[in-house]
Structure formats: structure tokens, C-alpha cells
């Protein structure tokens, strides 16, 4: 099998992984509230159940990312992580008690940590200009799962039979269904996934070739050293670097690697930055804050939606599933729009646009959802507009944020860096449901704090806007200026 076919099958498998993560979320979320009620759980268990899933992902993400950075391998990590998804969903299916249900979400959440390794792999194997498109496709795959999941729930809710000692009904069926799907995915990863090294024409080698074509003449050709073939590019040995016009031939030759070369040789200024210093830069901190606040607000609203629809509109599992299905369709359409938009706007501009929409959404919810007025139709219209605006802003923020984050952090530690980013998001998804779960009866405080966080993020982004760009690539054609 040729390299191109292997790469295509690997990417399809990655899309399947994120598709199933979306399906799992969509089949569990609409029913977990009623499931907990059948187990006589207190209302705050809804927030605990959603947070437990995020907590384990928060802890496992950096570990799996560091593992992939050290080994440059992701297949074994994915196979290992999927085992937790299989076991966790089977525990959810068993459902003997509220504590087993809580534990099941914690175990299944460990499997989500493999996402940091996958994002690290995608960063190393894609060109800078294609990064946003690739990440958008991966995220759209998860949203497709969110769209498919509610449709599957419509059929799963019809289950009502006995399977040995276990009862299969509309509450336990999602766990059994996802257990089977993750088992099939384990086979797909074994057969269709390869740890492929970056080829010429992707990522770093694209940059090397472009600089050579623009800055070299036939007599002044910059050759890649052996270190470049192992992932370190932009390094030139003293025998390969010919003196340029305007430089004295009597000047001392460059010391052999690994002695430092002039800045103009370094094509990626952040490639060898230490991980700790890399993550503490101002622009990185702004993106991490954007990750936290966006997901905190999203999960808080998601935790609020189910009790709110039950209180005001008497929605059941079917109505909630249809609502999530429509939201998933909206997100997928937005991702297709972003695929076109990212080629015409910088990531920071898309991020700013998403923040504007999110601010408008939060203001709308603060005004109209805290104290609904009018009859049923008017209240439902207010609710639909608020949800529509909230869902609309998410893809703008998520795609631009992940793509920009991958460009301004060190390539050698992408797995760990992406793990930290996902852990920050995981912390937000832990605190968001807990915050919302305790304040469903006091929406002014809940939404007021969310509005304050968005305002803080907008101010931070305003002052750091000029820093939210990918590293500049300095061409080696200017070496003569350093020599003179």
C-alpha cells in the first residue's frame, strides 16, 4: 500500500474517532438527567456526571501528549485509550447505582486524552497553510457525530428488553451502543491507522523548499543536513554553506552543528523553544484563556438547557434530542462556511468575530432568559434565538483557536502543548456544569459571571491582538547582510 493511501486511511480513522466522540456526547447528554432521576440522584449529580468525564480527560490529556512527543507514535496510545471508552460505556450500561454511573463517566473520559496525541500528529504532518482546514474537518467530524447522535437516540429510546442480568431500556441502551461502537473503532485503528513520518511537501519541508526556491541561485544552494531528515530543519553544515556575494572569503567558517547558526537560518523561531517558556508567552496565555472561558460558558449553558426546557416547555428525551440534532446541523453548516472563510481571513480575525457573536449571545440570554416574559410561543422564540447565537459563535472560536495555538507553540512538543490546551478546556467543562447546576434557579448570577468572563477575554484579546500571529519566517537570502 502506497504512502498516500495510508495517509488517507489514517485521516479517515481520525475523523471516525472524533465522530464517535460526538455521537457519544449526543446520545448520553439528552438522557443522563432522567437516568439519574431513576437512580434517585440529587440534581447536582448531573453536574458531577458531566464534570467527571472532563476531569479524567484533563488528567490524561497531557500524559498521552507527552507520551506521543517522546515516542512520535500515536497508534498505540489510541488503542490503549479506546479501552477506557469501552469499559466506561459498559459501566454506564450496567447502571446499578448513581455512583457507578458517575464512575463510568470518569473512566470513559480517560479515553478522550488521546485527542492531544492526535492533534500533535496532525500539527507535525500538515502544512501551515492547511492547518486551519484540517482542524476544521476534524472538528466538523465531531459535530457530525453530535448531529447523528440525537437521531440514533430516537431509536435507542424504543429499547425495552432483558439481556441476561441487565435491563436494556432508553436510559441504559446508549451505554451498550457506544461500547459496541468503540469496540469496532478499535478494529478500525488496528487495520487502517499508521504512524506515518512527515513527508516532503508537508509542514517543515514545505518551508525549506519555498525558501530555497526564492532565495538561492545555482551557485549558492543550501542543502539539508542529515539532522533535517530526522525532524530538525534549517541546519547547515560548514561544508554546505557557500560564501555569498559581498562576504569575505577569509572570514572564519561556521562551526559544525550543533553550534548555533544565525537567526536567518532558523526557519521556525519557536521550534526549539522550551515547553515551559513556550506556554507562558502572552499570546499563548490569551489563547488558553479563550479556551477556558469559551468552554466554561458553553458547558454551563448546556447543563442549564435540559432543566430549563423541562421547566418552561416540558421537553422530554425526544424533544431534547431533536434540539441537539438541529444545533449539530447548525454547527456543521458553520464549519463549511469557515472552510471558505479561513482562506480569506486571518485566524485572529475569525477568533475576534467569534467572540463578538458570543458576547451578543450572552447579552441576549442575560436579558431574555433570566426572566422569560409572554406566552409559550414568545418564550420559545427567545430561547431558540439565544441557543442559535451561542452555537453560531462556537465554531469561529474553536477552529481559529486550535489552528493558531498550533502555530505559535513549539513543534517538538505539540502533543504536550495540545494536551495542556485540552486540559484547560477540560477544567472549564468541569467547572461549567458545576457552576450552572447550582444556579439553575438564579440565572442572573450565573449568566452575569459568564458575561464578565467574556468581557475580560475581549479586553485581553484587544491588548494582545498584534501578537496573535504565526511566527515570521526569515529567508536565508538575507545571510549576506549578517556576514557583512
Task: Describe this entry's structure for a reader.
The chain is mostly helical and 484 residues long. Helix content is 70%, strand content 1%. The chain has helices at 3-38, 44-71, 75-94, 98-110, 114-125, 131-156, 173-192, 204-215, 226-229, 275-279, 282-312, 317-341, 347-368, 376-408, 414-437, 443-464, 479-483, and strands at 161-163, 166-168. Strand 1 (161-163) and strand 2 (166-168) form a beta hairpin. The radius of gyration is 25 Å and the shape is globular. The protein starts with a helix and ends with a helix.
The spatial strand order of the largest sheet comes to 1-2
Helix content: 55-70%
For the largest beta-sheet, the strand count, sense and barrel status come to: 2 strands, antiparallel
* Whole-number mean pLDDT: 76
Oligomer: single chain
* String of helices and strands: HHHHHHEEHHHHHHHHHHH
Approximate shape: globular
What count of helical segments does DSSP give?
Answer: 17
User: Strand percentage, roughly?
Assistant: under 5%
State the separation between the terminal residues, measured CA to CA.
51 Å
Rounded radius of gyration (Å): 25 Å
- Give the strand tally: 2
- Structural class designation: mainly alpha
Which stretches are poorly predicted, pLDDT < 50 over at least 5 residues?
199-274, 474-484
Amino acid at each position: 500500500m502506497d504512502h498516500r493511501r495510508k495517509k488517507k486511511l489514517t485521516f479517515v480513522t481520525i475523523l471516525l474517532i472524533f465522530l464517535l466522540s460526538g455521537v457519544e456526547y449526543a446520545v448520553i447528554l439528552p438522557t443522563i438527567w432522567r437516568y439519574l432521576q431513576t437512580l434517585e440522584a440529587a440534581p447536582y449529580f448531573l453536574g458531577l456526571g458531566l464534570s467527571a468525564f472532563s476531569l479524567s480527560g484533563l488528567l490524561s490529556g497531557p500524559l498521552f501528549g507527552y507520551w506521543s512527543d517522546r515516542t512520535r507514535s500515536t497508534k498505540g496510545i489510541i488503542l490503549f485509550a479506546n479501552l477506557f471508552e469501552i469499559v466506561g460505556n459498559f459501566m454506564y450500561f450496567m447502571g446499578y447505582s448513581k455512583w457507578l454511573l458517575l464512575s463510568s463517566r470518569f473512566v470513559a473520559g480517560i479515553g478522550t486524552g488521546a485527542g492531544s496525541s492526535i492533534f500533535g500528529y496532525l500539527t507535525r504532518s500538515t502544512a501551515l497553510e492547511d492547518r486551519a482546514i484540517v482542524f476544521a474537518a476534524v472538528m466538523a467530524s465531531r459535530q457530525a457525530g453530535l448531529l447523528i447522535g440525537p437521531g440514533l437516540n430516537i431509536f435507542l429510546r424504543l429499547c425495552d428488553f432483558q439481556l441476561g442480568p441487565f435491563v436494556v431500556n432508553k436510559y441504559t441502551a446508549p451505554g451498550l451502543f457506544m461500547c459496541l461502537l468503540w469496540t469496532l473503532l478499535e478494529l478500525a485503528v488496528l487495520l487502517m491507522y499508521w504512524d506515518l513520518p512527515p513527508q516532503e511537501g508537508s509542514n517543515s519541508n514545505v518551508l525549506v523548499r519555498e525558501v530555497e526556491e526564492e532565495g538561492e541561485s545555482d551557485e549558492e544552494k543550501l542543502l539539508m543536513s542529515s539532522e533535517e531528515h530526522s525532524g530538525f530543519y534549517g541546519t547547515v553544515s560548514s561544508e554546505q554553506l557557500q560564501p555569498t556575494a559581498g562576504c569575505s572569503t577569509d572570514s572564519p567558517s561556521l562551526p559544525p552543528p550543533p553550534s548555533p547558526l544565525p537567526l536567518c537560518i532558523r526557519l521556525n523561531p519557536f521550534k526549539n523553544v522550551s515547553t515551559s517558556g513556550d506556554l507562558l508567552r502572552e499570546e499563548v496565555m490569551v489563547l488558553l484563556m479563550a479556551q477556558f472561558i469559551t468552554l466554561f460558558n458553553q458547558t454551563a449553558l448546556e447543563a442549564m438547557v435540559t432543566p430549563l426546557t423541562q421547566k418552561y416547555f416540558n421537553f422530554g428525551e425526544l424533544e431534547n434530542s431533536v434540539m441537539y440534532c438541529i444545533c449539530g446541523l447548525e454547527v456543521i453548516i458553520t464549519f463549511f462556511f469557515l472552510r471558505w472563510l479561513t482562506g480569506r481571513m486571518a485566524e485572529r480575525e475569525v477568533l475576534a468575530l467569534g467572540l463578538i457573536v458570543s458576547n451578543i449571545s450572552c447579552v441576549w440570554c442575560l436579558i431574555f432568559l433570566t426572566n422569560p416574559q409572554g406566552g409559550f410561543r414568545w418564550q420559545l422564540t427567545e430561547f431558540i434565538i439565544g441557543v442559535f447565537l451561542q452555537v453560531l459563535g462556537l465554531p469561529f472560536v474553536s477552529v481559529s483557536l486550535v489552528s493558531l495555538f498550533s502555530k505559535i507553540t513549539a513543534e517538538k512538543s505539540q502533543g504536550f502543548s495540545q494536551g495542556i490546551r485540552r486540559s484547560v478546556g477540560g477544567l472549564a467543562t468541569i467547572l461549567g456544569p458545576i457552576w450552572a447546576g447550582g444556579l439553575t434557579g438564579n440565572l442572573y448570577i450565573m449568566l452575569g459571571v459568564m458575561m464578565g468572563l467574556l468581557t475580560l477575554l475581549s479586553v485581553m484579546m484587544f491588548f494582545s491582538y498584534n501578537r496573535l500571529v504565526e511566527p515570521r519566517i526569515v529567508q536565508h537570502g538575507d545571510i549576506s547582510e549578517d556576514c557583512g
